[in-house]
Specification:
By secondary structure, the chain is an alpha+beta fold. The protein has helices at residues 31-35, 66-74, 82-90, 102-116, 164-177, 196-199, 213-227, 231-247, 251-270, 320-333, 351-362, 374-412, 464-478, 480-484, 495-507, 553-588, 595-605, 608-613, 616-621, 626-649; strands spanning 16-17, 46-51, 57-63, 93-98, 131-135, 145-147, 156-161, 281-288, 293-301, 304-312, 341-344, 367-370, 420-429, 432-442, 445-446, 452-455, 488-492, 516-525, 532-539, 547-548. Strands 13, 14, 15, 16, 17, 18, 19 and 20 form an 8-stranded mixed sheet that branches. A 5-stranded mixed sheet has the order 10-9-8-11-12. α8 (231-247) runs antiparallel to α9 and α16 (553-588) runs antiparallel to α20 (626-649). α15 links the parallel β17 (488-492) and β18. It is built from 20 helices and 20 strands.
Length: 650
């Protein structure tokens, strides 16, 4: 039975079964039996679920009228797509939950799809949100932040940026153009002397009283105008302030405004305006082929194309309106930026309720627009072209990847094509904070849902083969389903690691079902005896000499890419543990912080990062005396700088 999930359930009734429950395989109901239950469904809004013979959820849907919606699945005259026919053939049970409104049904459906991830729903596998820039004008001295989640907190958000580097480069440029404070915390801590950023011209020095709050807030206003795309207004303001400063013979200030005016003008020239409506728009383009569905979201911000995001909906099939409606629910439910308009290629049955839902979350009207002509239709055509091209590119990549892994299987003489390859790596310095990481590639592409990482428990001194054996042993024990689907286990190491793992697999009696190989960069004599050079060597069980793949660069690059991803994943985990260890030690050494206060701070703020970013006021509110709170901020800031330097050395 379905369990309500907090606030998103609203007033939903408990889940009921349309007729007697028949979930056991021996009593499984066929489509004809399910059709006979339609009369038991109410003419009320709610959600419904199809289950298979084992009780697993096949599909979750919502309806304004449950009886009418369910009836559409079983009417002989209705045209049903292939996906729905297959789903109905596997359906053994049907359940529903009544809600107080269609909007509530929409929220419940989105919540349950995210939780259960049914096979026949549109499921967004990548829940990651892109970076955006946040500024809260209500703060005494606002600062620019990079965030991944949009909160309904009254702050202004700008984005999203499809590249993390682009977001950080934009933030860096904004600080050069508008030198707002860089120090962390909502409350600005007073200083006798400003920090180095002030001397470099990247901060106004508000902490040392180098700028009045009035002038600081003028610059905040300029930043907001710039990010909102209201550059004409910004240029007029900058020009006016430059002239006023020149008339008052404040020539340095006039030059400051002049330089900023030039930089703003130069930035505007680089932007390509593709819409004259100058508002925030998301444009959805969808392209379906026999075996795939590609959906593209174009981000139009104040008339400028700021990027796009592509979704491979894999096996999702159905009418465009159904897929787009499901996509909108999940995409914005996950916390994505909500624009003023969502432009779609077809009208939706739930267009009104979706628009109301988005408007409620944004706090202002959001329109879902099925464009048929004009400038919006031009944007839709652009989105469709991108979706079509992306689908074609993905198909070509898959063919190349398939040929590559087939060649890898033949070269390594594997018993089957290595569709799923796992790579294991160990990261530590002299055995300290040792961690192991496992990454999985499927058909030559990362499968990040299958990544695993472990803290080494059994070894405290450097011993990579033993540490790797511990990681693989725990992987096999804790994730037998993941392990059973692997076609190749790749080790980042040489012959020592390989022999240790082969012995482990023999002991577990799975060496025949889990092929293993290792990759190591080692010295070897160059061709022509010109000296030694570094070569990638591939070691295989039962083979005395390693393989050299320099004659097969594509295969070698694939293995290197998998190995490097495992190394990145492992060392990131190691650095986090190392950094937290340094910060924890620093917290323990602060006068006035004992075990009780340390535990209280961790419970109140949740993490050391949150404690470090807290202001003196927030620490005082948590129960610390002012002097102790100031010491916490000072010591943790030094510990953070030390941790960064240590990470860079590692």
């Amino acid at each position: 039975m379905l369990e309500p999930e907090g606030e998103n359930q609203g007033g939903a009734a408990g889940l009921e079964t349309g007729g007697s429950s028949q979930t056991a395989a021996s009593e499984a109901a066929g489509p004809g039996d399910l059709a006979g239950r339609i009369s038991a469904f109410p003419h009320l809004p709610g959600i419904y679920m199809f289950r298979d013979t084992s009780g697993g959820i096949l599909y979750i849907g919502k309806a304004r009228d449950l009886r009418k919606r369910i009836g559409n699945y079983f009417r002989s005259g209705e045209a049903i797509d292939a996906k729905t026919r297959i789903m109905l053939s596997k359906a053994a049970d049907l359940e529903y939950a009544v809600t107080s409104s269609e909007k509530e049904a929409l929220l419940l459906e989105a919540s349950l799809i995210k939780k259960h991830r049914p096979r026949y729903n549109v499921v967004l596998r990548d829940d990651k949100n892109y970076l955006s820039i946040r500024i809260d004008s209500r703060d005494p001295y606002p600062r620019l932040d990079i965030v991944r989640r949009f909160q309904k907190d009254g702050a202004l958000y700008f984005g999203p940026y499809t590249s993390a580097r682009a977001a950080r480069d934009t933030l860096k440029y904004l600080h050069q153009l508008f030198p707002l404070r860089l120090c962390k915390g909502k409350k600005l801590l007073p200083r006798d002397r400003p920090c180095l950023n002030f001397s470099m011209g990247q901060c106004l020095g508000a902490c040392a009283g180098k700028v009045s709050r009035e002038d600081y807030m003028k610059m905040v206003e300029e930043v907001v105008l710039f990010l909102q795309g209201k550059t004409d207004t910004l240029q007029r303001q900058l020009k006016q302030r430059m002239q006023e400063a020149a008339q008052a013979q404040h020539f340095e200030l006039a030059a400051f405004y002049r330089d900023r005016l030039r930089n703003v003008a130069a930035t505007i020239e680089k932007q390509h305006v593709i819409s004259d409506r100058f508002r925030d728009q998301d444009v959805l383009g969808i392209y379906q082929e026999e075996d795939r569905t590609e959906l593209v979201v174009l981000f139009i911000r104040q008339g400028v194309h700021s990027g796009q995001r592509t979704f491979d909906l894999k096996e999702a099939k159905g009418e465009d309106r159904e897929l787009i409606s499901s996509f909108i629910q999940q995409y914005y439910y996950q916390g994505a930026f909500i624009p003023d308009e969502v432009i779609i290629p077809v009208s939706l049955d739930s267009e009104t309720v979706l628009s109301e839902w988005l408007s409620d979350m944004k706090g202002k009207r959001v329109r879902i627009w099925a464009a048929m002509r004009g400038g919006r239709k031009h944007l839709l055509d652009m989105a469709l072209t991108n979706a079509r091209e992306r689908s074609g590119s993905r198909r070509r990549w898959q063919k190349l990847d398939r040929a590559l892994i087939e060649s890898l299987g033949r070269l390594l003489k594997l018993p089957r094509t290595p569709e799923r390859i796992a790579c294991v790596d160990i990261s530590n310095i002299q055995g300290q904070h040792a961690v192991g990481a496992v990454v999985v590639f499927e058909s030559g592409r990362p499968d990040k849902n299958s990544y695993r990482r472990y803290r080494i428990r059994l070894k405290s001194e450097p011993d990579d083969p033993a540490m790797m054996a511990e990681v693989i042993g725990r992987l096999i024990e804790n994730d037998p389903e993941l392990t059973s689907k692997l076609d190749l286990l790749l080790l980042d190491g040489g012959k020592g690691q390989l022999n240790k793992i082969v012995a482990l697999l023999d002991q577990l009696e799975i060496s025949d079902t889990l092929p293993v190989a290792s990759i190591a960069k080692e010295q070897e004599w160059d061709i022509g005896d010109k000296g030694k050079g570094l070569y990638e060597k591939i070691y295989l069980p039962g083979r005395k000499n390693p393989l050299f793949l320099h004659r097969y660069p594509d295969i070698l690059h694939l293995l290197q890419r998998i190995r490097d991803e495992a190394h990145r994943f492992a060392i990131t985990h190691y650095q986090n543990l190392h950094r937290n260890s340094l910060l924890t030690s620093a917290l323990d050494g602060i006068p006035g912080i004992g075990p009780g206060r340390r535990q209280m701070l961790l419970q109140r703020f949740g993490s050391l990062d949150a404690i470090q970013e807290a202001s003196v006021f927030e620490l005082e509110s948590a129960g610390l005396p002012q002097k102790v709170a100031q010491s916490v901020i000072s010591v943790l800031s030094k510990a953070e700088r030390g941790a960064i330097l240590e990470d860079e050395k590692d």
